[in-house]
Amino acid sequence: MSTETDPGMSDSEPQTNAMGGGGLVTAAQVKPKRSAGLSRLVGPGAVFALFIGFWYFTHHVLMSGPKKPLVPVPHDVVRESFLTWNIERGADGSRTGGGLIKLLDGLFESVQVAALGLAIAIVLGFVLATLMSQAKWVQNALWPFLIALQAMPILAFVPLIGTVIGFNFKARVMVCVIIAIFPIVANTLFGLLSVDRGYHELMTLNGASRVTRLIKLQFPAAMPSIFTGLQISAGLSVVGAVVGDFFFRQGEPGLGRLINLYQNSTAYEQMYGAVVMSALLGIAVFMMFGWIGNRVVGSWHEKRSS
Question: What pLDDT was estimated at residue 214?
Fold first, then answer.
């Protein structure tokens, strides 16, 4: 028995496996994926390099002699804040001490505040968004106050929060809740109300109750919007934790209080290190919720997969 080879197919061309309806992944399919992954690294890397270059340019060119210490060069910031484990108070004229261990202590305190504030904001946000999606009068009653809460600067709440709650850990958590709750409510409500009308009619034909419709239709369809809101609120909770440290100074110092402390003692390398640590924390929580969102809905929702 002889076999014939299709003259239109070269020996080097990848072939697919027809058994079971599956197929081998070809080099042409793998290459775009690798290119896409590489582009995701090259873009941020290039922007980061430009940022570092501008930082050096600012120190050496834009800042005059007496002002150069106000913008220390990046390698000094890395050495003093991240590569030095501990700087004792009084060592080399340091009035506050510093080093990586102090940044990690401040990071731990800020993570506690941000995590607790974000958790409370998530619970309250989901409850409010659910109620607003089920009753139009609830939405009309609450929406103006939520917009006002978002529009008012957080500094306007500081005296009120400090007077009622005290200048302590609870006050810092309250700041995080106030800052983080609006994106959760807005995005969750948008997702719950954006379900296609045809699906609602199908649920009605099947006699689904309001609770069944909410659990089996609206919440699954709203997941992409929900995780978008969670990503935004996660970053804002870090902002709230850092800002709260500036005004509510009872208890262990977080990153915000370290920034203020280093600024007052002119330890600018340490101050920039605390700012960098705050930025890294915000990026980490933003990416974490993005990863969770892709894991939860990325495999089946077309908007999340694209």
Answer: 87
